[in-house]
């Protein structure tokens, strides 16, 4: 077994490696260049019988594992949405791993529960949610959405389904848009509603949920004897960051007495900017809200912030109290195991606390504003090129575009050309982008949101895209 002195020595070495990694991160190909099985084949079939030295373990980390990693913290990472970390976040995470506390209830680490409560209250102020709401850290937005729909299910069935199952409560309907994230459908399945009871409402030209189509769908379902239960609105769709019109959706939720959940996984971060608060007009009518500091707010995965208006409904839905978990403080403190799915919980508030304190709220705002400005400049550069086109309106720091030489009119050929462009770009190792389809058309997505991104990275990336596109053999 490793001694504490050996641990000290190894830890110092690792910290040096970590700092060097971040300093030289741009030297690695952003997207891992490996084929399926490449890593697996290099690892022994059986676990070691005798303990091995850290030096030999670390050597394999560098030579086998690292080449198979995609470098999400590279400033040339423009793919998906970011999963940002930052120096203060890593430092907080090191302490979380060191304390290795199981923070299921207040009693198992009071500071973890109280710091979480405080930091959630900070976040609530930072993004302008109603002060009476309560927040809790979940592992992911997917879990938060599941918890929200379970709470809706229980509140509207008077907590009967938890007890007796669905008998007598069939035909609940859940509404979202056709652009909604796949985690909504997954939650609908797991919560037992059945995916055929998820109604995907049409979107407008800007890919936002169309409130008229929503109301029509609800009316039709009511006439057909179905039971409309909940609406999931998205602020910042994954494809194009479209913002569903919350105010109008909230009015419909009020009119038909429906549960309203907001999935703001990525774009919710931008609410720290007063100029984006228009996105949550109508928030008083909302029941639950989730956004991911682990996407844009410099806090390493996992850290998803879930806020609820009716904390009693959440607790009644999720709480369990076996004898061995009863304590003197039960009922007087926040026992967060009752606020989500898992019993066991990591001390996730610590890294978020480090981030908010070390950046400062204004520091976070400044970085976000730069990211958004660079996206707007990128959008302009793209729009100025006659052989490129913008494919969807930009709301934040995601630009959706494609290469479109004027002489090519055939849409299938354009799709193939852009797919070829994306693969060429990513194979270069110099940057990493992903794609979506906008109204059926193959579209490149470029998010300018990585923690240590600078303007020069965006400009160099765009020059490289231009160059590569014009060198493509036109299929
Ligand atoms: C990323 C994303 C999710 C899923 O987030 P997880 O935390 O990975 O579950 C859900 N909704 C939207 C809009 C997203 O962009």
The unreliable regions are: none
**Strand arrangement, largest sheet?**
1-7-6-5-4-2-3
Total number of beta strands: 11
User: What is the typical, i.e. mean, pLDDT?
Assistant: 96
Measured between the Cα atoms of the first and last residue, the distance is 60 Å
Sheet with the most strands, sense and barrel status: 7 strands, mixed
Percent of residues in helices = 40-55%
Specify the overall morphology: globular
Global structural class: alpha/beta
Order of helices and strands: HHHHHEHHEHEHEHEEEHHHEEHEEH
The percentage of residues in β strands lies in: 5-15%
In DSSP terms, counting alpha (H) and pi (I) runs of 4 or more, how many helices? 15
Radius of gyration: 24 Å
Q: What is bound: which ligands?
A: pyridoxal-5'-phosphate
Task: Report what the structure shows.
With 475 residues, this protein is α/β, with parallel strands linked by helices. Helix content is 42%, strand content 12%. It contains 15 helices and eleven strands. The chain has helices at 4-23, 38-42, 54-65, 87-99, 110-127, 141-156, 160-164, 182-190, 211-223, 246-255, 311-318, 349-359, 361-384, 411-427, 455-471; strands spanning 134-138, 172-177, 198-201, 227-234, 259-263, 288-291, 304-308, 388-390, 398-403, 434-438, 441-447. The strands form two sheets. A seven-stranded mixed beta sheet has the order 1-7-6-5-4-2-3, sandwiched between helices. The chain has a four-stranded antiparallel beta sheet with strand order 8-9-11-10. The termini are far apart. The mean pLDDT is 96. Bound molecules: pyridoxal-5'-phosphate. Pyridoxal-5'-phosphate is lined by residues 81, 140-142, 181, 183, 234, 236-238, 263, 265-266, 292, 304.
């Amino acid at each position: 077994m490793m001694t504490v002195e050996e641990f000290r020595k190894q830890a110092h070495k690792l910290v040096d490696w970590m700092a060097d990694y971040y300093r030289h991160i741009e030297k690695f190909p952003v997207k891992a260049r490996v084929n399926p099985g490449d890593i697996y084949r290099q690892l022994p079939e059986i676990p070691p019988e005798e303990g091995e030295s850290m030096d030999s373990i670390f050597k394999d980390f560098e030579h086998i594992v690292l080449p198979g990693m995609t470098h999400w913290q590279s400033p040339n990472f423009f793919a998906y949405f970011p999963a940002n970390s930052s120096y203060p976040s890593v430092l907080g995470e090191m302490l979380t791993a060191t304390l290795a506390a199981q923070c299921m209830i207040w009693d198992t680490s009071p500071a973890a529960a109280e710091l979480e409560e405080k930091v959630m209250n900070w976040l609530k102020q930072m993004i302008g949610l109603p002060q009476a709401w309560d927040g809790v850290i979940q592992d992911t937005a997917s879990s938060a959405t599941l918890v929200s729909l379970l709470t809706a299910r229980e509140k509207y069935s008077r907590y009967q389904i938890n007890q007796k199952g669905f008998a007598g409560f069939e035909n609940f309907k859940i509404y979202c848009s056709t652009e909604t994230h796949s985690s909504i459908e997954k939650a609908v399945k797991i919560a037992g509603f059945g995916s055929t009871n998820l109604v995907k409402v049409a979107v407008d030209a800007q890919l936002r949920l169309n409130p008229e189509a929503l109301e029509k769908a609800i009316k039709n379902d009511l006439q057909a004897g179905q039971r409309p239960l909940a609406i999931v609105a998205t602020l910042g769709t994954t494809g194009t960051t479209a913002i569903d019109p919350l105010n109008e959706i909230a009015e419909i939720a009020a009119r038909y007495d429906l549960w309203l959940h907001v999935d703001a996984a990525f774009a919710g971060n931008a609410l720290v900017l007063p100029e984006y608060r228009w996105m949550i007009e109508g928030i008083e009518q909302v029941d639950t809200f989730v956004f991911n500091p682990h996407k844009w707010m410099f806090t390493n995965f996992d850290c998803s912030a879930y806020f609820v208006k009716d904390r009693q409904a959440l607790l009644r839905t999720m709480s369990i109290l076996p004898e061995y978990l009863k304590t003197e403080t039960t009922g007087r403190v926040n026992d967060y195991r009752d606020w989500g799915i898992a019993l066991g919980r990591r001390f996730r508030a610590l890294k978020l606390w480090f981030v908010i304190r070390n950046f400062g709220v204004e520091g976070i705002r400044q970085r976000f504003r730069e990211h958004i400005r660079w996206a707007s400049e990128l959008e302009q550069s793209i729009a100025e090129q006659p052989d490129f086109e913008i494919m969807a309106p930009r709301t934040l720091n995601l630009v959706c575009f494609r290469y479109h030489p004027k002489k090519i009119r055939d849409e299938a050929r354009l799709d193939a050309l852009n797919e070829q462009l994306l693969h060429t770009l990513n194979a270069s190792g110099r940057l990493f982008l992903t794609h979506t389809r906008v109204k059926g058309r193959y579209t490149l997505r470029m998010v300018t949101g990585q923690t240590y991104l600078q303007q020069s990275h965006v400009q160099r990336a765009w020059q490289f895209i231009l160059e590569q596109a014009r060198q493509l053999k036109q299929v």
